[in-house]
Amino acid sequence: MVVAHPTAPAAAAPAAAVTATVVMTTATMDLRDWLFLCYGLIAFLTEVIDSTTCPSVCRCDHGFVYCNDRGLTSIPADIPDDATTLYLQNNQINNAGIPQDLKTKVNVQVIYLYENDLDEFPVNLPRSLRELHLQDNNVRAIARDSLARIPLLEKLHLDDNSVSTVSIEEDAFADSKRLKLLFLSRNHLSSIPSGLPRTLEELRLDHNRISTIPLHAFKGLNSLRRLVLDDNLLANQRIADDTFSRLQNLTELSLVRNSLAAPPLNLPSAHLQKLYLQDNAISHIPYNTLAKMRELERLDLSNNNLTTLPRGLFDDLESLAQLLLRNNPWFCGCNLMWLRDWVKARAAVVNVRGLMCQGPEKVRGMAIKDITSEMDECFETGAQGGAANAAAKTTAGDHASATTPQGSLFTLKAKRPGLRLPDSSLDYPMATGYGAKTLVIHVKPLTADSIRITWKATLPASSFRLSWLRLGHSPAVGSITETLVQGDKTEYLLTALEPKSTYIICMVTMETGNTYVADETPVCAKAETAVALVFLFLVLGAICWYVHRAGELLTRDRAYNRGSRKKDDYMESGTKKDNSILEIRGPGLQMLPINPYRAKEEYVVHTIFPSNGSSLCKGTHTIGYGTTRGYRDGGIPDIDYTYT
């Protein structure tokens, strides 16, 4: 049986009404809202397209914009907004070519602008910048205002520009609170810039003209890890003693190619890992230079003037892995026996390069680790010389004064600590260290005011101190004259001495630090200058003058006739006019005199000065221990031996 539902048609009516409403709503959206949605979509797509647009001359890749090596004179204006790194190097961009719109690119963090035509520090840079490369331009100054516009900067490369010390504003880095790396290599700096930010971790000042480093040059740079000062004009006497000791967190220090005679004093020891001292003039290293450098891993002393190293120099270098000693004149005598043993003991952990012997002759060219029998002789010599050395220390001591056995000759007073004056006969050998080291000097008067000194030392020395005193003068009033002579010299000429006078001449071997060897006693000799020949020179001078005036020395009868000379030729020899003419004959030139006389020969009197460059006058130099001594040039610049 079929049951009828009268309500079914009634339920279908609302459904039809809903359908009609949906159709009505869709029609309404087509007219009003659909256009609004289209406009919104177009605006969104336009913004997306604009943010990813790449300049036609560049190439873009996920925030990296490559516009380098294009010959550009300005930065393209349509840099994408999402750019993070701009490569603009190797172009011809000048300061006028940096648009102001660049400041609006707030996502840019790195800009490469090296090798362009910038002559000023750019100012239209985005504040978001973290790293800026301006090397190989012509930037001449650093102003505070320029750096204040990029306060988030962490790395600044200004290598190969024209920045000078005076062109850096005193507070130029005052607003650079985050700067960690500063490269100022190959500029025109004459000193360390002042006001460097305390946040610096790496500072490069190589290839400049820095000659002086005052005590507070690196004040406040407690975060500095790496310092490079290669290729400057640094010398020991122009570096304050505690300059580097304040940099306690320093891990790398490079002083390559300067004018150092020794490593700077008080190097930072706590965290130093790399120390580069090659290509200097280092001839000595104090024994405590590397003390407490337990983290040092690499040490380079190549291309210096080292002949030996003090015992125990490397005792604290627990982490040392590489030691470079190339191109030094190593003298592999008994004094380096400890180094041979150290190299052998640490061979498994330390890579030692370049320790090749240059002397003595029998071991020349050998690596020190390969020397065995030659150094074994040191034990026997040392055993024999040990008692003598001990006795010498006991008897000689560090006397304040001493006299020679003659007593009546002179009495010298030592003005330096550790200096012992002669206490035995003149011209005698000395014993010191392991075995006997002999220094013998010989003196020979040459003229009335000069004496030649020669000497022979069996072991090399960095230098010798030569002193001389004229008898009859008290050494207490500064009559002792001294000079330093290089260790490779074997003779010296004293000049400008008093005629017919007796001189005491002494020589002592110096350690590499220009200090006296521990057990050395000066070797002395006595010499007497000849009688003055002043009167003879006067007589000869008068005769020559008379002959010159009279014109009778050269006669017509001599076998080598010079041609006739008239009286006026001598009278006017200094002012006579050159009457020769230039005559051209064929391919050559010929000078012909107009007057019939043959050309007169000219005689020039030359003054012969003493050899070895000695000066005839003395300069005085007051040393800290109170004695005024004259110094002469013996082939060694005085600046190398300045006491500071």
Question: Brief overview, please?
Answer:
The chain is α/β, with parallel strands linked by helices.
Labels describing this entry:
Immunoglobulin-like; 14-stranded mixed beta sheet; 644 residues; disordered N terminus; 6-stranded mixed beta sheet; alpha/beta; 31 strands; Leucine-rich repeat, LRR (right-handed beta-alpha superhelix)
Q: Strand count, sense and closure of the main sheet? A: 14 strands, mixed
Low-confidence stretches: 1-12, 46-51, 380-437, 473-478, 553-590, 596-644
Total beta strand runs: 31
The CATH topology name of the domain at 57-210 reads Leucine-rich repeat, LRR (right-handed beta-alpha superhelix)
Computed Rg: 42 Å
DSSP helix fraction: 10-25%
Strand content: 15-25%
Strand order of the largest sheet: 1-2-3-4-5-6-7-8-9-10-11-12-13-15
Structure, described:
With 644 residues, the protein is of the alpha/beta class. Among the domains are: 57-210, Ribonuclease Inhibitor (Leucine-rich repeat, LRR (right-handed beta-alpha superhelix), Alpha-Beta Horseshoe), CATH 3.80.10; 411-533 and 613-641, Immunoglobulin-like (Sandwich). It is built from seven helices and 31 strands. The strands form seven sheets. It has a 14-stranded mixed β-sheet with strand order 1-2-3-4-5-6-7-8-9-10-11-12-13-15, with no helix packed on it. β30 and β31 form a beta hairpin. It starts with 7 loop residues before the first helix and ends in a 13-residue tail after the last strand.
